[in-house]
Design a protein that fits this description.
homodimer, alpha+beta, Arc Repressor Mutant, subunit A, 2 domains, two-stranded antiparallel ribbon, 6 helices, elongated, disordered N terminus
Chain lengths: ~240, ~240
């Protein structure tokens, strides 16, 4: 068993199933929510009828990279073509899928829900729905998706403490009180208004675009993200919660 | 092309090659080093004769999980069975391996080099050697291994700032000045002695084991890691470099 096979015989090894799953987060009705999709109720498929993270098999003809595959899955489920997308980790083993050895590469995406196109236009006929993250964690999800979802929530919450990540959940332009509300919804606790305001502006990732309608019908300065390619990591003294 | 195939036809899709690579770090001669292995000089194999990260194909019969596979690769190359091992990320695409669509799951390991068994006893006949990380980065490595190595170095250096990670590079028992020296070697800069001492002890991950021989032949308190399962994340006020 321990003999190292030659390269040629290794290529003829049985290969595992390879999938990509995307944990898609958005803020809806002042709740931090995640998109789930229901598995087909076909008993020949694993976990029939259970809710699961959107995802599926890598397509070696269509996808040039893992990231391409994640972008494709995101677009298939939401219509969204650009958003914040980050690799979360890999889960692989011989027990996680009854069809055989399987490895999934999980990503998480932050979208603003206004980007979402009408669900009826979304390709495929599978049922999808948004759930508050705590409700989603209490469901019985397919595969090891509860574990993956839990890791994604932990990652986002820990990054919220020191990056501009929550801004990707917002429709532009937005006001600073609206941005603060999103930080609070993701973290699940209130933050000090004047410290928040100073830190966001000092971190220099926002661009003023002029007065817009803010909360309670009052005008306030509107902002958009200067650079949508990546989130800004705040210097330690600027961290949101300090 | 965009029609969603049924589950059965998806299972007959071409599957990518799946590998696991391990970036193995150790301190040697006061240098932060990484283990590389030379690709066989067989022209039918990709990147013949180039240095590469240790790793190879997942074996669906032998490995029950991705982590099992990483542990097996680490043991094959070093003889080490336990060490700090952390998932780094996945790199996958149709261009990274001339043999076809390929995805690798990269891990990094921190070992103390005294754990290493004689290289002649290590299975396989491939040449392996330790390189200072900066020298390794300047080499032409096989596949996208320079990118993976670079990501691993960044991860370790950023974690060194706020975790007990470097302790896993040390043979036990060790003194606090020896531990400080390892932090300094990984980070590439000196640290304040009394602040370092206080922070390490306050972080409560070390256990005193009695006097041992320290630097310059003087006795000093020896320590070992209380819990080898995982690294301790320091509270912000205890961070090593503050």
């Amino acid at each position: 068993m321990n003999k190292i096979p030659s390269s040629a015989s290794k290529l003829s090894f049985e290969r595992p199933l390879v999938t990509v799953d995307v944990v898609i987060f958005a803020i809806q009705n002042e709740q931090f929510t995640v998109l789930l999709t229901r598995r087909p109720a076909v008993s020949s498929d694993p976990f029939p009828g259970l809710w699961a993270l959107p995802g599926g098999f890598l397509d070696v003809l269509q996808d040039h990279t893992l990231l391409d595959c994640a972008i494709r899955k995101l677009k298939d489920k939401t219509g969204v073509e650009t958003s914040y997308l980050e690799q979360l980790g890999s889960w692989g083993g011989d027990k996680r899928d009854p069809r055989g050895w399987s490895v999934t590469q999980a990503y998480f995406a932050l979208i603003n829900v206004k980007q979402e196109i009408d669900q009826k236009q979304v390709r495929g006929s599978t049922e999808t729905a948004w759930f508050a993250v705590d409700d989603a964690l209490r469901k019985r999800l397919a595969f090891d998706h509860t574990q993956i979802l839990s890791a994604a929530i932990d990652r986002v919450r820990s990054k919220v403490e020191y990056t501009s990540l929550p801004a990707f959940l917002m429709e532009e332009a937005f006001t600073l009180p609206q941005l603060q509300r999103v930080y609070e919804v993701v973290l699940g606790r209130p933050m000090d208004k004047s410290a928040f305001r100073r830190r966001m502006l000092d971190a220099d990732f926002l661009e003023a675009v002029g007065l817009i309608d803010g909360s309670l019908g009052r005008s306030a300065m509107g902002y958009r993200i200067k650079n949508r390619v990546t989130a800004v990591t705040f210097p330690r003294t600027f961290r949101a919660s300090e």
